[in-house]
Amino acid sequence: MGDATAELSQPSLVDTLPPNVPVVEFEDVHLRFDENEVLRGVSFRVERGEMRIILGPAGVGKSVLMKLANGLLQPDSGVVRVFGKDLCTLTLREMFALRAHVGMVFQESALFDSLNVEDNVAYRLHEEHLPEEEIHTQVVEALRFVELEKAIYKFPAELSGGMRRRVSIARAIISKPDLILYDSPTGGLDPITSNTIIELVVKQRDVSHTTSLLITHRLQDAFTMATHRWNAELGTMEKMPGNELDERTKFLVLNEGRVVFDGSTRELTHTEDPWLKAFLE
Amino acid sequence: MKLLSPEAYAKDIVTSVQEYSLLCGRAIACLFSKPRYVADIYTQMDSIGVGSLPIVVLTGFFTGCVLALQAAVSLKEFGAVNMTGRLVSLSMVKELGPVLTGLMVSGRNASGMASELGSMKVTEQIDAMRALGTDPIRKLVAPRLVATVFMMFFLTIISDACGIGGGGLVAVTLLRLNGASYFHTGYMSLVHGDVVEGLTKPLFSAFIIATIGCFYGLQTTGGTRGVGRSTTQAVVVSSVLIILMDFMVTQLMIDFFGR
Question: Which domains does chain A have, with CATH numbers?
Answer without folding.
Answer: 3-20+50-68+89-280 (3.40.50.300)
